[in-house]
Write a structure and sequence with these properties.
This protein has 17 helices and twelve strands. The protein has 440 residues and is α/β, with parallel strands linked by helices.
Length: 440
């Protein structure tokens, strides 16, 4: 299997701002750990039993050095387009000539770029000739699906029959603009070069080009957020699991100070991950980062629980630096951040099999309803967990099923009762998807 993993500079594919392992490195380490543990306990069910990363950028620099070229990370994008294309062809030729690439139990993750935004123009990061070669050769070498390579699915879902994992697919790693800019500023190559608007545009171009290449070859393309658990990419590689977009009314719950319900929604998502690949919209924190300049310390403490504040401090590096960054955003950039958030979440729904909505409030959420409409009208199943019997016909119309109190059951009255119902209904939905019967 081959995974073509794109993502702009600063997205944390291979390294973090502090030099620590990036998202792809952590995914490989997580996969190796899980495979080793499963084999000790009796066997790993996936045909993929080994994972490795090939860093295409590092490979290009190494081959340039072998050729006696004085090329460094800071200067490689200043090369003549023809020289850069030849260097890229040398690297791709080496990858395609590696016999290990076609070993059936190995997944090779090609860490690369779809494009670069450099000195106000785009530079290609991929070579269409070699991409075509890799796709065609993968299809030629892939064995026909057989019953011995059945992957995981859930009996409660009407999905296509389980098949062998795709032989090749694209994934684009995405992250919040603040975190990307923070990593870029830690490098000599990118320090001071890009403002927030340019990063927004570049990340959109990276996603768009990757999707176009995947669509042309009729192979899957997935967005995976940098802050998703490492298991997300491993599960996409190794298993044919149902994919879930988890929706919940983030803004309303924060405004009301109901941060414990946000934590409950994310905990529910973690339980879903035992059976599904889950995409959590809060794994990209553009809206959070942009809002920090407009809320004071008291409001910050009210809208975020202690554990959430600790999480923010980890990805922000410094709350002071984050507030200064957010204060420097103009209204146009804030608009672009909001639009990028909407488009990204809709794309996460597009790559999912279903939209599971954790909706513990009677207040209207424009975001959640818009996501439900998009999922419903693009053929996705929509499951809503809602703690009240009186439900808007619009909410009900766009749902495949609503898990709400029964006609003889009283609505929960206190926050504790709402939380108890949401937890119970969440467990019932997980059981239902897994083919078991569990009453509310």
């Amino acid at each position: 299997m081959i995974v073509i993993a794109t993502g702009i500079s600063g997205s944390g594919k291979l390294t973090e701002a502090d030099g620590g392992p990036g998202a792809l490195v952590r995914a490989v380490a997580d996969g190796e750990r899980r495979i080793a543990q499963a084999q000790r306990e009796g066997g790993w069910p996936s045909p993929i039993k080994r994972l490795r990363i090939v860093d295409m950028g590092r490979l290009m620099l190494d081959r340039a050095r072998d050729l006696g070229m004085d090329v460094r990370t800071e200067t490689i994008l200043d090369m003549a387009p023809e020289a850069l294309q030849e260097l890229r062809a040398i690297a791709f030729t080496e990858v395609a000539s590696d016999s290990a690439l076609w070993e059936p139990d190995l997944c090779t993750i090609l860490a690369t770029h779809a494009c670069f935004w450099w000195k106000s123009h785009l530079i290609p990061g991929l070579d269409t000739y070699y991409l075509k070669l890799l796709v065609d050769e993968t299809r030629r070498r892939m064995p026909a699906p057989d019953g011995a390579a059945v992957q995981e699915t859930l009996p409660g879902l009407a999905l296509a029959p389980p098949v062998r994992p795709e032989g090749i697919f694209y994934v684009t790693l995405v992250d919040s603009v603040y975190q990307i800019q923070r990593r870029l500023e830690a490098t000599a190559q990118w320090r001071g070069r890009l403002d927030a608007d340019e990063i927004i545009a570049w990340q959109e171009q990276e996603v768009f080009i990757s999707k176009m290449f995947a669509a042309y070859e009729r192979v899957p393309h997935y967005l995976v957020a940098h802050d998703e658990p490492a298991s997300t990419l491993v599960d996409l590689i190794c298993f044919k699991r149902p994919r879930v977009y988890l929706g919940y009314p983030i803004t309303n719950l924060r405004r009301d100070g109901r941060v414990e319900l946000i934590e409950m929604a994310r905990t529910f998502g973690e339980r879903l991950r035992a059976h599904c690949v889950v995409f959590d919209p809060l794994s990209v924190k553009d809206e959070e980062a942009a809002a920090f300049a407009r809320i004071g310390e008291a409001e910050f403490d009210r809208q975020f629980s202690p554990s959430q504040r600790e999480e923010i401090a980890r990805w922000a590096g410094s709350l002071h630096a984050l507030r200064a960054w957010a204060a420097g955003l103009d209204d146009r950039t804030r608009l672009h951040l909001g639009r990028a958030t909407v488009v990204r979440d809709l794309r996460l729904i597009d790559q999912s099999d279903m939209n599971v909505v954790f909706y513990p409030t009677s207040q209207m959420s424009f975001g959640v309803l818009s996501e439900m409409i998009h999922a419903h009208t693009t053929g996705k199943k929509v499951y809503v967990i809602y703690p009240f019997k009186a439900i808007s016909p619009f909410l009900e119309f766009y749902a495949t099923d609503v898990l709400a109190p029964g006609p003889d059951e009283a609505d929960p009255q206190s926050p504790e009762e709402v939380a108890a119902f949401m937890e119970r209904a969440g467990e019932a939905l997980i059981a239902r998807l897994a083919g078991a019967a569990l009453p509310l």
